[in-house]
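Quick question, first post here. What does this chain look like in 3D?
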Amino acid sequence: MVDECISPYLARALRELFAVDHQVANIRDHFGPGVKDLTWIKSLSDDGEWIVLSADRRITRNKAEMQAFKSSGLIGFFLSKSVYQKPMHRQFMRVLAVWESLEKQATLVRPGAMFEITERGDRFRQL
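> Answer (accepted):
Ran it through. Tokens below.
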């Protein structure tokens, strides 16, 4: 699931690129624009196993949202500020560069785990 802070064009590109192996959706398409973080976190957690790609670092700083995410069935990958500030095509390139590592990492951790996608390397910083 790609959150609202990331371009819907990037979400659509990922959906088309990985359609054979993954269901990629955009929060905006799934819930409508402006959905509250606590609402989609709870709904996706109830819905099943989702991996969230986000640039909304407020989730990691807001106590209620952080607790909801950590106790959810979700795994989150958050673009670092330096990645998020890049043009969309650079964000896309970075996500593609770490996609395999992201898939692997998601199989190794418990739900509620949160990681940061940094500008370099294929390792993630745990949040």
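Residues 21 and 49 are 15 Å apart (CA to CA).
DSSP finds seven helices and four strands in the chain.
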